[in-house]
């Protein structure tokens, strides 16, 4: 249940995906909450799809959104979003928070592929995405951050992404950018004027024995094996279209399963 | 303790092999992102607040006596680029040799046994600081400063930049070095109660992409 208070909106949406015993995946829990509306869309094979629909704009200053998804043993879930999320300044004072907590059990698979997060001028958003995978879980997760709408200065955005496999951290990174972020974020070591930055992490048990080969795609992206059964694509581009193209190209370059 | 031990540890002539690494400056120079004193300063500023803060936090935590195995794993998770993980371990191994010879200690010996191929350099540096009788603040300063002094001296060689200009860029970063060292130590103290997830995890996309591009060059002046 979302609550609007002087401090902004708090809302928590939940998904639980469960193998239905007939080769498909059911959704015993699909809880929308206020601005976070979840819709079940068509399923293909064993995979069930959920679309996150923004029922209001936001997050605005003071809001705290949380999305939780648990994919149980043997289930297969794909989550997308209907449109980009736009972080905006709000009436309420203070920053906004967007927490994403994902859990994937043994033999289960999660595709977490939302549209871009756009950091609008004057906004201040902290995003924290935490993924816990069991040893034989599989994951494809994409995060794209666009710094400002067209022709606009970005807001302040801090985004942390941490991924654990069997309790062991394989990735823990934070990117802070926009006005008020520590210095140098737009300089030659970090973004150098690029306004779109993204990561794609792919976790597969097979990567433990056969890691991907490290490489680059032009000057804007790298594909690397992490210390664990995972591959990471890191990309920067002038805009959202260029970023998506790089991430798609990198995903296509990974070995097929 | 002797504060002067910090000067020995932080000295660019301490025989730990750091001079062979550019901290990403060689790739940034080649890509045209560093072309003079002003862009060098911005490069160093960005590196300080991302990779520098992360490394300083690890080092301060090691100096506080946090388990180096847990810290080394935390360093791996914060270093997605395999080229940078290899560089950090190589530097860690070289630093460990120098530190064991300089400040013999059972902890450094144990670290060598645990990580025959080298632990991440900031973790080793934190333990070296402990062995030298120094504390987490010293370790954080040492690592934060190294995160910018390396690229600065490399750029002097790569661009034939005036060394006075490079040194001035470093001096201008001094107040931010103070803040980074403070944040690193504060986070390291949180690790005692909250575990290594409390450590900073600042990242710089272009440093990571540049490190992988650089590792693929057939000829280069610096190892990373």
Structure description:
The complex is a heterodimer of chains A (257) and B (224). Chain A contains 1 helix and 19 strands. Chain A has one domain (3-193). The mean pLDDT of chain A is 93. In chain A, a hairpin with a 5-residue loop joins strand 2 and strand 3. With 257 residues, chain A is mainly β. Chain B has one domain (17-215): Orthogonal Bundle (Urease accessory protein UreF). Chain B has helices spanning 4-10, 25-30, 37-63, 68-77, 82-102, 106-114, 121-131, 136-159, 163-172, 174-194, 205-215. The mean pLDDT of chain B is 96. The radius of gyration of chain B is 16 Å and the shape is globular. Chain B is mainly α. The interface between A and B is large, with 37 and 45 residues.
Question: Roughly what is the average pLDDT of chain A, rounded to an integer?
Answer: 93
User: Helix-strand pattern of chain A, N to C?
Assistant: EEEEEEEEEEEEEEEEEEEH
Strand content of chain B: under 5%
> Low-confidence parts of chain B, pLDDT < 50 over ≥5 residues?
none
How would you characterize the largest beta sheet of chain B?
none
CA-based shape of chain B? globular
Largest interface: A-B, 37 and 45 residues
Low-pLDDT stretches of chain A: none
Number of domains of chain B: 1
Find the count of extended strands of chain A (DSSP E, 2+ residues). 19
In CATH, what is the homologous superfamily of chain B?
A: Urease accessory protein UreF
Shape summary of chain A: globular
Number of domains of chain A: 1
- The helix count of chain B comes to 11
Mean pLDDT of chain B, to the nearest integer, reads 96
What is the quaternary state of this protein?
A: heterodimer
Strand-residue proportion of chain A: over 45%
């Amino acid at each position: 249940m979302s609550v609007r208070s002087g401090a902004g909106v708090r809302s928590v949406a939940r998904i639980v995906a469960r193998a239905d015993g007939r080769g498909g995946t059911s959704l015993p829990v699909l809880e929308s909450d206020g601005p976070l509306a979840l819709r079940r869309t068509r399923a293909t094979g064993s995979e069930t799809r959920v679309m996150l629909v923004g029922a209001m704009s936001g997050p605005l200053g003071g809001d705290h959104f949380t999305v939780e998804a648990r994919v149980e043993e043997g289930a297969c879930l794909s989550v997308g979003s209907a449109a980009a999320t736009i972080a905006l300044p709000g009436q309420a004072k203070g920053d906004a928070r967007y927490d994403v907590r994902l859990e994937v059990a043994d033999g289960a698979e999660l595709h977490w592929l939302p549209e871009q997060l756009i950091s609008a001028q004057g906004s201040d958003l902290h995003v924290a995405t935490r993924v816990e995978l069991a040893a034989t879980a599989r994951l494809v997760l994409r995060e794209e951050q666009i710094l400002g709408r067209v022709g606009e200065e970005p807001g302040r955005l801090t985004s942390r992404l941490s991924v654990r496999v069997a309790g062991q951290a394989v990735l823990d990174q934070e990117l802070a950018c926009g006005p008020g972020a520590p210095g140098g974020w737009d300089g030659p070591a970090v973004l150098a004027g690029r306004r779109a930055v993204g990561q794609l992490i792919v976790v597969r048990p097979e990567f433990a024995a056969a890691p991907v080969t490290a490489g680059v795609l032009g000057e804007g992206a790298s594909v690397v094996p992490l210390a664990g059964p995972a591959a990471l694509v890191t990309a920067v581009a002038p805009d959202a279209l260029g970023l998506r193209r790089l991430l798609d190209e990198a995903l296509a370059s990974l070995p097929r399963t | 303790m002797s504060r002067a031990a910090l000067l020995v540890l932080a000295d660019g002539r301490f025989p730990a092999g750091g001079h062979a690494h550019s901290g990403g400056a060689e790739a940034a120079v080649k890509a045209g992102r560093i072309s003079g004193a002003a862009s060098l300063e911005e490069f160093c500023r960005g590196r300080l607040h991302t990779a520098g803060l992360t490394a300083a936090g690890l080092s301060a935590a090691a100096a506080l006596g946090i388990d180096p195995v847990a810290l080394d794993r935390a360093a791996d998770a914060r270093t997605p680029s395999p080229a940078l993980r290899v560089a950090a371990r190589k530097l860690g191994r070289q630093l460990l040799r120098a530190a064991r010879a300089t400040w013999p200690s059972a902890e450094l010996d144990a670290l060598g046994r645990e990580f025959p191929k080298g632990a991440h350099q900031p973790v080793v540096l934190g333990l070296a600081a402990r062995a030298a009788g120094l504390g987490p603040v010293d370790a954080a300063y040492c690592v934060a400063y190294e995160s910018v002094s390396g690229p600065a001296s490399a750029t002097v060689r790569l661009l034939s930049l005036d060394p006075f200009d490079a040194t001035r860029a470093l001096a201008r970063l001094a107040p931010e070095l103070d803040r980074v060292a403070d944040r690193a130590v504060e986070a390291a103290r949180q690790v005692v109660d909250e575990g290594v997830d409390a450590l900073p995890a600042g990242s710089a996309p272009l440093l990571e992409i540049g490190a992988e591009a650089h590792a693929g060059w057939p000829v280069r002046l610096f190892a990373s």
